[in-house]
Amino acid sequence: MDSSCETFLISGLASLYFNESRDAFVTIKNWQILKICLENEHHTNHVIYMNQKKNTLLTTIGALTASTLVASASGGDWAETLKSAGKLYSNSDNPYIQEVKIFGRAHYQWNYSDGNSDQNFSGNGDELRRLRFGTSVKFLNGFKALGRINLEDGGFRNTALDYDGFDELYLEYGKKDFLGFDSAAIAYGRYKVAVGGEEHISSKKIKTVERSNINNRFGAIRPTGVRLTAEKNGVEYIAGIFSTTADDEALSDWSDGTAFYGSATFDALQGSITADFLHADSGTDADSAFNFDWVTSLSYSATYGDVDLLTQATYGDTGNGNVYGLVILPSTFIVPEKLEAVFRYQWAHATGDSGVPQSSSSRGLRRVASNEGASTGSGDDNHTFYLGLNYYIADNNAKVMIGAEYENTSGGTQDIEGYTLWTGFRAYF
User: What are the two backbone dihedrals, phi and then psi, of residue 247, each rounded to the nearest 5 degrees?
Assistant: First the structure.
């Protein structure tokens, strides 16, 4: 990052301390400046790697985080400004264009892991976990077009900013009192297909730094297809028919098999229940967008006094055996709306050679083990315990997360055991 860019950032941050009336503008502008600076550096063929330029980038991110905290403390409507910053235009009376929005998210994290598999290992590393930007347009009183791209093309200890395909891309038409439902929408494009309560929660709002292993075994799917969403009498429905042809960038063709997806969410037992099912033809083929034959999940969420609870049971057929497991995730605020304590227990079991998950260890432990030349493990039973704190600077739009996670996998060709210390910063608009 050249000196002029760094000076620009520092001057922008300093202005926040001397002009509180501009707190919201300066804070948001700083993030925009950071993005421009990083892009400029990329365009001069200096790909940004956090492990190579850690001091500069971490100092900048730390300064931006500090400016966010100062802006929050200075009062005013900073949080509301952040939440509404992406709405560029809104007019329901316009018959042509009703709304134009831009949105983005930046998720940065660091972890230290220590464990044992075929050898002892320990290490740490940082990662720009997600960097996404998108836009949506509502038009002609019922249509919506949305596109969101990934801008992080590196990984653990190897962060690089570059275009890395679409996260989602679709065209939708929806109305109230449509297709026999209270409201409904039909769409075609590239979607996130969610199976399980953790996966239904956006990464912008999850309460742990990473989702559980059993969730990730069947998560992170972005196939192309037709999707119907509907609501009637308080029940929310999702149905989809998707191509199993994989495409890492945008829309795929239909040259391989077909996947069928269904989901329903309804109130019951003083809470909310979500039932999911997905079946994929040729799901275990090497070039499939899916890596399993079928999976089903039942999730329950409720609030008991001051405690929010999410539970999730998942069962699936990987083609090489079955994988099933349970997640229990309670959370409560220690300081109302600001400081939250989170606990998660996960158990998963695999039959055959399917692994729990495929790598049999979480993202943090797995990455460190792999970088240190140790086995990432292969076993039948996986237990994980996570304990963390979340500090909400501006609700989920800006928060700091810390956590500690212990896990072990046993019963296979290579046991693995260890713990991970996590810290992360999440922001979106």
Answer: -145, 115
Q: Which domain holds residue 62?
A: 3-80
CB contact burial 17-52 (16+ within 10 A = b; e otherwise): eeeeeebbbbbbebbebbbebbeebeeeeebbebee
What is the tens place of the pLDDT at every residue in 218-239? 988 999 999 999 999 999 999 9
Asked whether residue 56 is assigned to any structural domain, the reply reads: yes
Tens digits of residue pLDDT in 361-395: 678 898 999 889 998 877 889 999 999 999 999 99
Split into its structural domains, the chain has a count of: 1
Q: Identify whether the C-beta of residue 42 lies closer than 8 Å to the C-beta of residue 159.
A: no
CB atoms within 10 A of CB 110: 17
CA angle 158, 210, 109 (to 5 degrees): 40
Cα–Cα distances in Å, from 294 out to 163, 201, 283, 352, 381? Answer: 31, 21, 8, 16, 20
63, part of any domain: yes
Question: 409 lies in a domain?
Answer: no
Neighbours of 181 (CB within 10 A): 19
Question: Do the bridges between strand 307-317 and strand 87-90 make them parallel or antiparallel, or are there none, so unpaired?
Answer: unpaired
